[in-house]
Structure formats: structure tokens, C-alpha cells
Amino acid sequence: MPEEQSSAGFKVVDRRPFSQDGTRRPDVPTEPDKEEQGRSGARAASSTSTSPPTAAPSLEPLADEEEASGEFESLVSFLGTNAMYQLGQLPGPSGERLPADLAGARQMISLLEVLQRKTKGNLTRAEAKLLDDVLYELRLAFVEVQKRGTSKGR
Questions:
Q1: Is 98 a domain residue?
Q2: What confidence tens digit (pLDDT) does each residue in 6-45 have?
Q3: Is residue 73 part of a domain?
Q4: First to last CA, the chain
């Protein structure tokens, strides 16, 4: 049943295009309505024609995009900081230097490299630069710690 009236006074509309058996429901329109277009950030045409809008979309990021950008930066920072801890470059929680764990650091760096490959072309310039810079610094620190470990072993 696609539409039901609730006792609370609001209407519940099932907008799923397919039924439980996987066939397309005939009562669901194939194109989203203007309310859905407005929610997705698309501009509704000013006239009643069905032609697409001619104005360029706004270049200002949506609140969701800003939030996602902040979350992405937090993720990169989290992984980068963990790698620096594992490289012994940052003090531990009680202030002491931790011994280097090259295998753990390499894994964190690899995770950031995977993130870079999988998000290529989908990041803002600032996000891509942040990821590039963090990876660059981590790779340099990894080689430096690795060289120190090799020279101590001699």
C-alpha cells in the first residue's frame, strides 16, 4: 500500500520505485518531483516547462559537503597521527616516546594510500592537498626512522 493516513495527521508515502518482487511499481513517477530536486540541491526551473535549468549551479558548498569535508580531514588526521605515533615521532599519552613500530606505521600509510586511490577525482583541492601533504610527511618520516634503525644495527 503506497499511501497511508496516520492518526497523527501526516501522510506516509512509499516512494520506492520497485515492489517486493523486484518489478517496477506503476504508481511511482520515473522522475523525482520538484520537492526532491530542491532537497538534492538542484535548482527548479522558474517556468512550468520541462526543460532543464540553464543557470549554472551555485559554487558554494552545501552544509553536507562542508560536514563531509571536515569528517574527511578528521579521518586523514587520525590515520596520519596514528602513523606518527607508530613511527615514534610523537609522544605517547603519558609523554614518553614510544618505540617505532615500522610494520604498524607502514599499514597506516598504506591505508592512506588506498584512501587516496579510491577518492581520486572526488576530493576538493584542499582535501587532495591535505592527503598529499600527510602522505609526503609520513613517507619521509618512515624512511628516516628506517635509516636510523638500520644504522643502529651495524
A1: yes
A2: 566 777 777 777 777 777 777 766 655 555 555 544 444 4
A3: yes
A4: 77
DSSP 93-104: TTSPBPPP-HHH
Q: How many structural domains compose the chain?
A: 1
Q: Is residue 89 part of a domain?
A: yes
pLDDT, one tens digit per residue, over 65-91 is 777 778 999 999 999 999 999 999 988
Q: How far apart are CA 153 and CA 99, in angstroms?
A: 15
Residue 10: inside a domain: no
Three cell numbers at 99? Answer: 618505540
Question: Is residue 111 over pLDDT 60?
Answer: yes
